Amino acid sequence: MRLINSVASCSTCHRRKFLRSALAGSAALFTVPGALAEALTRTPRDAEGPFYPDNLPLDTDNDLLIVNDKITPAVGAVSYLGGVVMDTKGQPLRNAVVEIWQVDNQGIYLHSKANGQDKRDRNFQSYGRFLTGSNGHYHFRTIKPPAYPGRTPHIHVAVSHRNKRILTTQMYIEGEKQNASDFLYKRLGGGDPKLQQLVTIPFTPLKGSKAGELTARLDLVVGLTPQDPGKTERDGQPRRQKRR
Ligand SMILES: [Fe+2]
What we know:
The chain has helices at about 15-30, 185, 195, and strands at about 55, 80-85, 95-100, 125-130, 135-145, 155-160, 165-175, 200, 205, 215, 220, 240-244. The protein is of the alpha/beta class. It has one domain (about 5-244): Protocatechuate 3,4-Dioxygenase, subunit A. Strands 2, 5, 9, 10 and 11 form a five-stranded mixed β-sheet that branches. The chain has a five-stranded mixed β-sheet with strand order 4-3-6-7-8, with no helix packed on it. A two-stranded parallel sheet has the order 1-12. Strand 9 and strand 10 form a beta hairpin. Fe (ii) ion binds near residues 151 and 154.
């Protein structure tokens, strides 16, 4: 896995800038509850969906706007997404692999069986992953996802620990009208609004950004045993994928 802070060359000005802002943001933005008297509610799981990339992109770092050393960034509303992976006592989880995958600005997935591959934004990485350190933080730079036919906007999220998938879910955007009618959103957490709320987050303007960048935070509360015991053969993460 190559993370943003290990990149040495430079289309990389973008990347260095991102790293700085991610680090600068982390101190102010992220606070871990610490040991809590009461257990936190686990982040509700959601369907993996059919479009986890069948071939991983050439670049799998946490900056989805730039593929390798290309100069042209992806099209879309630039969004800094991050949070803390923690257990139900609020203790940050180290060495968790957080993966995200999502559509590009036209609603197209990176997947050989997804519609519109010929029109896909080749500058959008579509998938990224991040290995948490001792503070449990994760960071991505991506785009705010649009809706696509049949679904309200969402980003797929998976967390793995010790090679086991411990959470598969999706994050949704607060205020999206289509959330209420989305077939997966309706059954999320058994339809309990409090559980739905745990994965429904605002995308808000990044302070001081003249380019209209957005910021979003989703903390992930995980149990340390796999949530999907029926899917063990697909649970080992990160999966071994062909690269292209
Ligand atoms: Fe999806």
